[in-house]
Amino acid sequence: MTENDYHAAQEFLGKKSHGLMDHEDKPIAKTGFPVQNYTIYPIQGRIFYVAAPNVFTHIMMKNVLLEAVKKYPERFGTGDAYDVVEAIRLIEPSFDTTQRHAQFLQNEQFGFIMENNGGTIQDKVLRIDLFREIKANAGGKHDFVGGVLHALKHFSYKGSNMATGKDINDIADPEQIIGLAIKAFFIPEETEQTAKGFIGRISLDENYWLKFSFYLEPVNAVHFINTVHKEKKKKVVAVQAVSD
User: Fold this and answer.
1) Please, are residues 51 and 13 in contact by the beta-carbon 8 Å criterion?
2) For residue 16, which phi and psi values (nearest 5 degrees)?
3) What's the domain count of the chain?
4) Does residue 68 fall inside a structural domain?
5) β-bridge pairing 222-232 and 120-121
């Protein structure tokens, strides 16, 4: 990352962050990061940056979540978001209760994903939170709403789910979900417009799509991950022509 690229990304990020802060009526917001908090993702000949605070970086890219999955597998795949938060807290015990740690992780822990095209930061930008909130579900447990911890319920590490779900789709580490989000957002195989954003589909395997629903905050043109689902692909039936 050159010095010019860094300053261009910082200027772009500052404008987006200030706009979101004003729109959401927040007293403070993260408006820039040191260069070491930028991660470069080269994908299909294109260059993407993920700028994130230390906590997000440590959990997703420095293996805190992966260590939690390895050390406390019984807290994953339970259907309750607070079990996952507690596993993370036990690895890095910043707070004395699960609820306080959840509130901390919910507040301004995100990555901004942007594309550098020939030295110019493109207008299309995705913000990925760890999660937007935790909500009680009908089963008496709790779900992650939005963000990467919501998406990770569809993935596993060596047979252990990486969030609240039961799906077994092994990936090498939690950071891989960021690359999948980049593909679904910037380079989807299929797209579908919605009332408040769009859907991007990428192949999970030969039978299923990974379907990302992105929400657009229109005032500042920042997208967020709304939901992620596994969707069965439609079978294409070949029709054989009958000759006379």
Assistant:
1) yes
2) -65, -40
3) 1
4) yes
5) unpaired
Taking only the tens of pLDDT, the chain with its 244 residues reads 888 888 888 888 877 766 555 545 554 555 667 888 899 999 999 999 999 988 899 899 888 999 999 999 999 999 999 999 999 999 988 888 999 999 989 887 888 999 999 889 998 999 999 998 999 988 899 999 988 999 899 889 999 999 999 988 888 888 898 999 999 999 999 999 999 999 999 998 888 898 999 999 887 888 998 888 888 888 755 555 555 5
**Which residues, other chains included, contact 6 with Cβ-Cβ below 8 Å and sequence gap of 6+?**
35, 38
Q: Does residue 15 lie in a domain region?
A: yes
Q: What is the pTM of this model?
A: 0.84
The shares of helix, strand and coil residues in the chain, as percent rounded to the nearest 5, are 35, 30, 35
Query: Which residue range(s) make up the domain with 51?
Result: 3-232
Q: Is residue 244 part of a domain?
A: no
Distance separating alpha carbons of residues 156 and 173, to the nearest angstrom: 9
Helix ranges (H only) for the chain are 3-23, 54-60, 64-71, 81-91, 98-106, 147-151, 176-186
- Whether residue 165 is contained in a domain is answered as yes
Terminal C-alpha separation, the chain: 65
